[in-house]
Amino acid sequence: MLQTRPRVALFVTCLVDLYRPNVGFSAIKLLEDAGCLVEVPEAQTCCGQPAYNSGDRATAKDLARAVVDAFLPYDYTVVPSGSCGGQISHHYPGLFDDDPHYRGKSEALAAKTFELVSFLTDIRGVESVNAAFDGVVTYHDSCSGLRELGVKAQPRRLLAGMPGVTLKEMPDAEICCGFGGTFCVKYPDISTRMVTDKTKSIASTGADTLLAGDMGCLLNMAGRLKREGTPVKVRHVAEVLAGRTREAPAIGETE
Description:
- Helices cover 50% and strands 12% of the residues.
- It is α/β, with parallel strands linked by helices.
- A 4-stranded parallel β-sheet has the order 2-1-3-4, with helices on both faces. The protein has a 4-stranded parallel β-sheet with strand order 6-5-7-8, with helices on both faces.
- Strand 7 (209-212), helix 12 (215-228) and strand 8 form a beta-alpha-beta unit.
- It is globular.
């Protein structure tokens, strides 16, 4: 592992902040264990992806400017979400084609923004975590994390090295769960069919726990699993890697 102590800003994300703070605390623990100095900028807000996906470029640009100004001073920005991480690192620069000043600033931020597990393994050289988990898990690849950020092997590698973990791959792990941000609102029938296909794949593994790296996907799949009466626990992968599964019930559960 690298010996330097970079100053890392945690981009918490709206869904983590409002629905799953334990993911944020888990991310901080993992980053600190990896030798980082972690800060959570108070000025952060939404990354702007919902507005961007809806074609509201003016709002997306306003939100992006606020994020750029708040996070650019840090050595790295780390996000426990492939979708928000992809928005900052892949889509921010294009918002400012008519603004050379913010185009340059957004490109600089994009170059040092990473999804959490990718940052731990690819940048900090983390090969194992100081945690254990007793269970059979299966992992869902979120669309943005996989296709925009290349997150695939990294979480599986860390999970495989954890005492007590048995990883079973589901069929079609790379296929979208049907959430897709505003997609599930615009096309609810298609979204429901997609998440139903996904829950069948999950159940076929016999796993007792479903993991992923995006809260949108996790909330969508947890909701469908619960409505179907399937007793699969749903958690963000950071909670398991950080050993913080006792600090909060599984997603969609109250105790």
